[in-house]
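User: Predict the structure for this protein chain, please.
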Amino acid sequence: MNNKEKAFQWLGEYQPDLIKIVGKYRKADHILSVEEIVSEVNKSSEATLNQRLFASLTRTIRGNWDNMPQNERGRYNQAVSQLADISADPEDIPIRYKHYVMKYGSTPTPQALVNNWGDLARQPINLSKDDLAKLNKSAREGASLEDWANE
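Assistant: Here is the predicted structure, written as structure tokens:
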């Protein structure tokens, strides 16, 4: 069960309690019904994940979101949407960013980070550029990893 499913399960288990709490404190003349208020609470929990993902992604890659043009913001929003779909943990973003830099030697765009998300779960092996070039050449030529190690 992924994080999103766990969150929905948790919310589902607490629905009766939420209804009791809202019912107790809701004023009789409130425009929304108890069910509508609880629905808004449920929606806000998902929005919070997106907000946390967006903040972590922009802080990690860009430093902040000041003066972000609409096109750039769109790329960040697309990345956040994909991360939210898999219930990514916002705290994983800086870790996987570091793994990307170690693996590719450059800073990732939001899309590059998301496109390599699964591969970046573990810290990559730190090889010199020469060793990495030899490994890539051996892989293209169909040599085994053992052959490469013995070179």
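The mean pLDDT is 82.
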